[in-house]
Amino acid sequence: MKTKEEIVGNWLCRYTKMPLENFGEQILLTNFNNYVDLFCQLKGVEPVGFGANMRAATADGVTMINFGIGSPNAALIMDLLSAVKPKACLFLGKCGGISDKTQLGDYILPLAGIRGEGTSNDYFPPEVPALPAFMLQRAVSTAMRDSGLDYWTGTVYTTNRRVWEHDERFKQYLLDTRAMAVDMETATLFSCGFYNHIPTGALLLVSDNPMVPEGIKTEESDNKVTANFAEAHVRIGIEAMRLIAGERKTVRHLKYDW
Questions:
Q1: CATH code assigned to 4-244
Q2: The pTM is what?
């Protein structure tokens, strides 16, 4: 294999154990196996096994993929998805609230990502902003509105650091950025999606408030957030993909090109 096209086509199948023709035109991305399971349940398709490195399922033209955790995996999946040229790619992820306005279970619709992860520097110079596809975020906003749900907008700081909650200097730096939340994938997905000509957006669920000791995520608190909010998160993602596909009268005015 000499070309990028040959490599990503082969590797996407290898990582997901799914042939290219089985991928839908709309992609939902996640870090969590239970989100893939919820997608299968909500769409009425057979549960996905655990034989693939990246578990994936397709229903009604939409494919959900668990690509794993972290910025390098985020860059990898966007490179691999260039093999199927999706019309829309939406990340359903969790994040830590930086602002004291955010509470567990709140949704954040990012307007931009701050590229603190470093991975995206291999794709663009540091001064290039990490931005989502506007029309995709607009469709998510419509899906949220139709579901009677509120959300915050703002920037998300993306970092490669996983254990920083003890580092007061880094926490002060996060506050200085005026970011609404912190995660490990969003800015990379936006940047690498742009690089690969894939319209990319995100809807993030606040799963912890790591700026204070009592808000740091534990197994108990994460299980509570998952039990109370994960299904609604996946439902909104599915609905947003329906809007992009043009199945709703409310978005007939939208044109979505990649």
A1: 3.40.50.1580
A2: 0.94
